[in-house]
# Entry
Amino acid sequence: MLVNQFLFLAALLFCIGVYGVIARKNAVLVLMSIELILNAVNLNFVAFALRNGNADGHTFALYIIAIAAAEVGVGLGLVLLIFRNRRTISLDDLSEMKG
Amino acid sequence: MVAQNIGFAIIAIVMVVGALRVVTTTNVVHAALWLVVVLAGAAAQYILLAAEFVAVTQVLVYIGAVMVLFLFGTMLTRSRIGRDSGLNNSYAKLGIPVAVVLFAAMSLALADSFGTEKLPTDGEIVTTQQVSDQIFGPYLLPFWALSFVLLAAVIGAIVLARKD
# Structure
């Protein structure tokens, strides 16, 4: 197995996630795209852990999984609050902070 | 060696197709279910990379907990269960050149840096014991910070979502 095959897969997933963040309007779908990006980073960490033969990559992959769980919890809490106040989760309609 | 590459290719194709469906489907619930495919594929790749503890954690946390959160989020925000044409921005097409250029830049950098370097096949396999030694040894401070972040996130999510 090449190092690059995993890194290319991760890069592809990352770019698909970036496209999702740009293209999507629904807040829940934007959060899903962010999960794609975080998973791509995790794949890189684990691939490099095997390449370098130490456990640092695994440790940080686990930390990222925990951070992603916290992020989704708070993110969906925010989305829920926005929905309750505004009856919409379309990110285009939340433009009050536009100068 | 060959078997590993075939396994990698199959899982990678499934993951990429799933990821593309996540960002293009017109149904929020379908997007969540395609995301399960991608996350399960990532867990399989971790097993291929000899990271069984990370793989099991991925299945437990992502597929078990995060997906349930997403499905509840979809349900509670009353996104249309079913086809919905209003999921994309009007400038959604702009994302395609951005993603393509980003991937081209990353590909050039990766091909330049690693070329055809192979993963070691006879090296030391990282054991779960080593991972725990790392977490509770040199990386204890980030672990504490992480515990605090999780606590704050749980409290914050309850405070935000509570009806009062």
